[in-house]
Amino acid sequence: MAEPEQAPPAPTRVLVVDDERNIRKTLAICLQGLGCAVTEVGSTDAALEALGRSAFDLAFVDLRLGKEDGLSLLPKLLAARPGLDVVMITAYAAVDTAVEAMRRGAKDYLPKPFTPAQIRRAVEQARGRREMETRLADLEGRLADAAPEPSLELASALMRPLFSCAGRAAPARACWRGRCIS
């Protein structure tokens, strides 16, 4: 018997947050080439507004957004959409900002200029995490359906034979250091 055909996976929904229009456009073209649905914005307010309108799987967020700060935006994005994969991008890469970005919940940190291969890797990792989350939820659902929580009545019925058997057993002795206690 043939297995039912599965629908093709939905495109990865990506939010690009960068104050430089050329970076947004270049990144969007690269992401669309990978089959992503892309929304571009140039500020923190626009990013939060876009997140309120649509669900995203992945966000590329510039560390410096003009006078605004991508690091400050990061926890707001994650609060609005728990599970969102965020990749910080910056022309001012430094170890301390990379560590801080990861501490605040970023999944990756890419210095500019980044390559299409780096973007592809970030998208594939986000897709892989999303697929694993979906599979885990499916397996948990199957497990719950296959072995529902026993009710108190069922547990009581299962325990009766054990109590009956225990009542007929000979008194037990406990021994410790050669002394038996009845």
Please characterize this protein's 3D structure.
The protein is an alpha/beta fold. The chain contains six helices and nine strands. The strands form three sheets. The chain has a five-stranded parallel β-sheet with strand order 2-1-3-6-7, sandwiched between helices. It starts with 12 loop residues before the first strand and ends with a strand.
List the helices and strands and how they pair.
Elements: E1 13-17, H1 21-33, E2 37-41, H2 44-53, E3 58-62, E4 64-65, E5 68-69, H3 70-80, E6 85-90, H4 95-103, E7 108-111, H5 116-146, H6 152-168, E8 174-176, E9 179-181
Q: Distance between termini?
A: 64 Å
* Uncertain ranges: none
Mean pLDDT, all residues = 85
Radius of gyration over all CA atoms, rounded: 27 Å
Beta-strand fraction estimate: 15-25%
